[in-house]
Amino acid sequence: MAHPADSSAPDFVPRAAPPVREHLAAATGLSEFLAGAGTLTLDERRLIVDQALLMLEQNYVHLPLKTAMHAVNPVQRLRVLRRRLDRQTADTMPVEWLFHSEMSEIFHSVRDLHTNYLLPAPYAGKVAFLPFLVERYEDAGAEHFIVTHVAQGFSAPGFGPGTEITHWSGIPIARAVELNAARFAGSNTAARRSRGVQSLTLRPLRMHLPPFEEWVTVSYTDGDGNRSELREIWRIVDNIALPAFRGGPGAPAGVASAEGLDLDMEEANRAKIMLFAPNVLARKRALDAGEDAPGVRAGEIPTSKPEVFRAQQVTTAAGTFGYIRIFTFMDLDVEGFLTEFVRLLHLMPDRGLILDVRDNGGGVIFNAEFALQTLTPRRITPEPVQFISSPLNLRICRKSPRELGAWLPSLEQAVEIGATYSSAVPLTPEDGANAIGQQYSGPVVLVTNARCYSATDIFAAGFQDHRIGPVLGTDESTGAGGANVWTHEHLVELLAGDPGTPYSPLPKQAGMRVAIRRTLRVGANSGTPVEDLGITPDEPYRMTRRDLLEDNADLFERAGRILRDLEPHAVSITDATAAGDALRLKVKVTNIDRLDVYVDQRPRASVDLADGQADVTVPDAGAAHSARVEGFASGELVASETAMLN
Length: 646
Fold this sequence. Notes:
By secondary structure, the chain is α+β, with helices and mostly antiparallel strands. It has a domain at 570-644: Immunoglobulins (Immunoglobulin-like, Sandwich). The strands form eight sheets. It has a seven-stranded mixed beta sheet with strand order 13-14-15-16-20-21-24. Strands 2, 18, 19, 22 and 23 form a five-stranded antiparallel beta sheet that branches. A four-stranded antiparallel beta sheet has the order 1-11-3-8. The two termini are 37 Å apart. Residues 1-20 and 242-250 have low confidence and may be disordered.
């Protein structure tokens, strides 16, 4: 579980942190790394292609959509590659990187960050990097690319945060980003452009081949307007290890199948922490050891999960508001994730909350959908998901009826009648998605960008579909990753013990992932797929230079103005007392004109309000276990609170 170096908060990155210098010293040059890479035999290459064909033909839920939208045929390309391998011998097979290049191109052709070819050893676990980060902003309609972070131990004359990049190896920087974007998967234009910027200086080798060039020449303008150039080599280093995706204590049943993660973004975020925010690692290690966490920035609220959350209050011209950044939903401790999120919500001012999920590549879908209930009085309807209809998916569901039985009848029917998809059934348990209800009653604005993906797409879709608040987007859409993803390893395990299983373990840490179930939206957007479309923000916004260099200064001002114009609504049970057989409730309200009272989940009273407080007596309820009050404004449910009584 990790988050990126906070790209809009330079003071978050300690410039003198020794671990960064150590990572630079431990890095290997690109040519040296490649000299020892490549040990796959011809039979191992054939096995990888066969398993890829199986997954794309039988498991890949977006294959019809991607074939139509992007005019690609990955299955046929794999068949052609397999035929070429049949004609090769151990003496005539091409060098290994050409094989990886073609496999990567085939998987990238569907523009789906859930569906990946994962390179084997020695690429697995490595990251290629340049020792600085570049980010994009707009000014009067023109786009600019500036350095926002520089690794400790690296320097060049006039080169640092705020330096503007003009050319990349002789190519105008905007064009270089476009060329980069075309090479990497991304479901829409905004997502591809965002990946094009990130991959300028950071490429996890689990997902991508090493750069073709051994070095880049960067042309830049310093703060005084002087033009300079530097030549910087690509370095290879071990990335922070990604834990296996498995359920842990507190994890609901089925968590191992509930992944919704952009692995490329997760790996990149981990690398950013390692290189540019080692204080986060130090805080996490201290917390795990039961020690005081070092390095908490001024005004920041300490959290037990610094790799997942950051919380503080922000002061704007429109007022003071809460701010919570969710860096990742990749936390296997589902109960712990929700508990810590609720704790942070209770520390936020009630006038409004800025909830920021930018650059969040997703994680556990349960975390994303369980969190929604805490922000709204409305009942959450989790997004339904569908398998593509295939004999193999039917076989998988039959093997796991407890977990996958809800899709079984429709798949049995679909195979017979030729339907493309199974029925749409929620993956997240609806009871869990509504177990604790609203915990924060102030207005909320959600901040997104094109690097929001997978479970974060699902979170943003649920936020918008349940009308929790406005979505403020720094790109024209989110990353559009509308699926639940399974690994090849997980598919092998699901049919373990079946003597006829078509899945075979892959060699030398090679891997594959596939979008197995697609997600559909609910509410007013019911039935609309998330894939390739993403979530369009209600309020568009373009990042500024101040945002990148001064801790989101202009973004916070914009969010503050939005929150200022939203009317707050709240209900709070201030006292609950048994009076004989009756239950007496004192309720404080804000901007509420009607109050409905439920006792032990049954409707028992409804009162009209004219001021900010209500006293309600419910007969025959003295021994009740719970009470819930729901507040309405002009007939619309706007706030609720539940109190446990005995």
